Amino acid sequence: MAAPEPEAKPPSREPPPGPEPNAPAAAGSQDLQPWEQHAAVINLPRYDYRASGSLLLRSHSGFLITCPIKREKSATKEAISILEEYIFHAKHHVSEQAEPCDVENAKKRKFCSLASEYSEKAVTDGNSISVSESTGSIGDSSSPQSKTGENAGSASNLSLVKLSRSGLLFFKFPSGGLHVVEMLTEIFHSLSSGKLKSPQWCHRIFPIQETCVLSEKDLHDTVSKLFLDFSRSKNNQDEPVKFAVAYNRRGIDETEMKPQKNGNEGSNQQALMDREQCFKVVAAAVKSVAENSVVDLKSPEVAVLVEMLPVSGVPVGSSVAGVSVLPAELISTKPRLCVRPLASDAKATKKK
Q1: Which residue intervals are annotated with compositional bias (Low complexity) in the record (predicted)?
Q2: pTM for the complete prediction?
């Protein structure tokens, strides 16, 4: 007798899988890679860690910006948004006075030289390194979030330099001789006309026309060159020039007596130029260009600002300074000789 066959079970009818509720969101998130999404939210340039050696070898133009302590990132974003609108003025002036090669070719040569140098180092050390990460230039043309156009291309000429003091930002160009004073003048005109909103985090912008090693000879040569350019732009060169000098060491006075790791306490102090010595060197440089110049601290026609740059990584015993020759409309004499603040209200002045 054959065994009874088992009853066939009816096939289970499961409902077809419906569309996932987060499907559109997931599809949208796949448009950008995770690191690209991060860059879209936090778009800050990397530090140029090679700047300490570059500043000791040749002159650079740039901007030294003051901001509140622990607000450097916010001020960096704000500074980039301000500067990128006016950098094309400096690029235009440089292209006019450049020799056979233009600015773009110079930038390409610099990039190629950096690339070959880093390639050699990578072969020697057995490590690969990205040139764009190490140079710290602003702007990344390969990023999907990068800006296009003249301003974005010009902004990539600036690099962010790491400083050893809080509340300061320093952006430098690959070379010196740029018309950063004219750029700051345009910024103040835009602020006064309402075209540019008063910044929240950036207090003052110091235009650095030239950098130099802080020594008597280098400082004298730099001031003479800049003051000669200023005197040539004057309408009446026969009248005596009323000038004033400001020397700011930006906290170096308080830290110069701290013991160094290598135990050489006197080398850093010896390299620092005191105020009296700085004033004598600058005055002699001005007199060498304009013999009829006179010192006027209350209403100077022009001010020579010497800013100590606390660049991180500068060897002990070396110091870098930024020098500017500014007209009267860009400076304030009270309570001390300084570049004008970007915000004219009393609250912003107290923050400085």
Answers
A1: 130-146
A2: 0.69
Q: Output DSSP code: residue 330.
A: G
Give me the pLDDT at residue 234, please: 78
Concatenating the DSSP letter of every residue in 125-188 gives: HT----HHHHH-BS--TTSTT---SHHHHHHTT-EEEPBSSTTEEEEE-SSS---HHHHHHHHH
Strand partners, 66: 168, 204
Q: Please identify which residue in the block is written with the tokens 């001789």.
A: 177
Task: State the amino acid at position 251 in one-letter form.
Answer: G
Query: CA–CA separation, 72 vs 291, rounded Å?
Result: 43
Return d(Cα 74, Cα 76) in angstroms, integer: 5
User: What is the distance in angstroms between the CA of the first residue and the CA of the last residue of the chain?
Assistant: 105
**Residue 42 tokens, joined:** 């936090």
Bridge partners for 168 per DSSP = 66
Output phi, psi for 122, to 5 deg. -65, -40
Q: How far out from the chain centre does Cα 338 lie?
A: 19
CB atoms within 10 A of CB 190: 15
150-170 pLDDT, tens digit each: 443 445 588 999 999 999 999
Q: For the sheet containing 294-295, what is the strand order? A: 210-213, 320-327, 302-309, 242-248, 294-295
Q: How far is CA 71 from CA 174, 202, 227, 258, in A?
A: 26, 9, 35, 26
Distance CA(75)–CA(68), nearest Å, equals: 8
**Contact yes or no for 159/172 (Cβ under 8 A):** yes
Which two structure tokens, joined as six digits, stand for 327?
């007209």
